[in-house]
Amino acid sequence: MNNAVVESTYVAYPTYKFENTSLELARSQWPNYDDQHYLRGCKWSPDGTCLLTVVRGAGMHVMELPSDLYAGDTLLTSRPIQPLVPAVSVPESGLIYDYCWYPGMNSANPATCCWVSSGHEGPIHLWDAFTGDLRCSYRGFNSTDQLEAAISVTFSADGQNIFCGYKKNVKIFSTGRPGREFIEYPVTHPASCITASLAHPGVVAIGTWKNTIELVSQSDGTFRHLCKLAGHKGGITTMAFSLDGMRLYSGARKDKEVICWDLRVPGRPLFCLNREANSNQKITIDISQCGNWLVTGGTDGKVQVWNVQESTAPSTHIQLPLHSDCCNGVSLHPYRPVLATASGQHHAQDPLHHSRITPTYENALCMWWVGNQQEDPDLITAIIKAATNS
Length: 390
Hints:
- The chain has 390 residues and is mostly beta strands.
- It has one domain: YVTN repeat-like/Quinoprotein amine dehydrogenase (Methylamine Dehydrogenase, Chain H, 7 Propeller).
- The protein is built from one helix and 33 strands.
- The strands form nine sheets. A five-stranded mixed beta sheet has the order 6-1-32-31-30, with no helix packed on it. The chain has a four-stranded antiparallel beta sheet with strand order 2-3-4-7, with no helix packed on it.
- The radius of gyration is 21 Å and the shape is globular.
- The chain starts with 22 loop residues before the first strand and ends with a helix.
- The relative contact order is 0.16.
- WD repeats lie at residues 275-316.
- This is WD repeat-containing protein 79.
- Belongs to the TCAB1 family.
- One of its GO terms (molecular function) is RNA binding.
- Keywords: Repeat, WD repeat.
């Protein structure tokens, strides 16, 4: 990762222009049909220097933000699409269930550059974002002292703890103490999704495969149940707290609604937003750092954008047809008007190979400019000159 550009990091919130045609900046593509190498989401690092994605059967990959995107308020529409080449790759062959950046990650301090992941039949791993090396592991054991794989993982707001969702409990590991020491909070159903509130440290939302969400407060190794939310038709797959921590947004598998919960009055949803989600695959949502914009993907390949700063259901809705296959991952850059998306899903194969034509599916990691755009004056001049000469 490039340390030279980290020192000039912007702190101001970007100006978004979602209503403009999104300008593709960079792309990386993976093959699909034989090995089913489809992507499973994407996440910008907290300092915005790089993007992390997981590819089924092809490991985890870290892509750097192109250097020309660190500055400037306007981008020329003639900018060529750059190929994304992994700066770091971790060749994990097993299925990765979940992953999360360390919240204090800063490329100027290599010790903070890491992410955590959970995979099939394995412990939780902490990976070095500079080298791709395994730093340490956290092992969760069940009542019969057998190693369990965590279904979901996330860091606490301060990064001191790692919350891991299992089938019968949520285990909390101390980040600075790898191994098998943990405290746990029992849950009725498998914890499929976990997110921590940045505005209210210690408050954690636990989503389950039984379409319910439980809010708990955790401090000093003790837990306090706050409330339980129910309204989805499928198991919870993605959640995000608002910037002030007063709202929680949630999405579920095979459920076309993204629900906004007002946590001051948590009895019923505040409003619902529609998206296409007709598969069991996790389709993520994200909220801009300014707290105004919510984005989500969909199985139709479209990215839905809403302005959620209003006190009621948002009136501003923008639809971006960015992919030809399922858009399962969306992530807004923390301080630049750049949207990252990941596409792909499992496709049923013809076991008898009746078809001679091998289908091509889109499995791409893309970066899109969603800020101010400007036509290239030299390009316009060249087009006018060519039209005149003809």
